[in-house]
Design goal:
Elements (H helix, E strand, L loop, with lengths): L1 E5 L8 H5 L3 E4 L4 E4 L3 E4 L2 E5 L5 H10 L5 E4 L8
Antiparallel strand pairs: 1-5, 1-6, 2-3, 4-5
Keywords: Electron transport, Iron, Iron-sulfur, Metal-binding, Transport
Pfam family, one: Fer4_15
Protein name: Ferredoxin
């Protein structure tokens, strides 16, 4: 499972940071950051979801008010 975070779309509500500790508040930019991620295209960050963090990652994606977080299963099918 992996997560994709579109940081450009992020509006800095930081609800994701309450759900999964992989998301961190960046008050200077007014946006969240996805720790241990790789930028795959401008302002899009991707990382694997570690075992045991799947539910937290799903909650983070579901709470994002602007759908900046997408979660994909191992087959590449979008879950959230």
């Amino acid at each position: 499972m992996h997560v994709e975070f579109d940081r450009d779309t992020c509006i800095g509500m930081f609800q994701c940071t309450d759900e999964w500790d992989a998301f961190e508040e960046n008050r200077d930019d007014g946006k969240a950051d996805l720790a241990e991620s790789e930028e795959t295209e401008p302002d899009v960050f991707v990382r694997e979801v570690p075992d045991g963090a799947e539910l937290d990652a799903e909650f983070a994606a579901r709470t994002c008010p602007v759908d900046a977080i997408r979660l994909y299963d191992d087959d590449g099918e979008q879950i959230v």
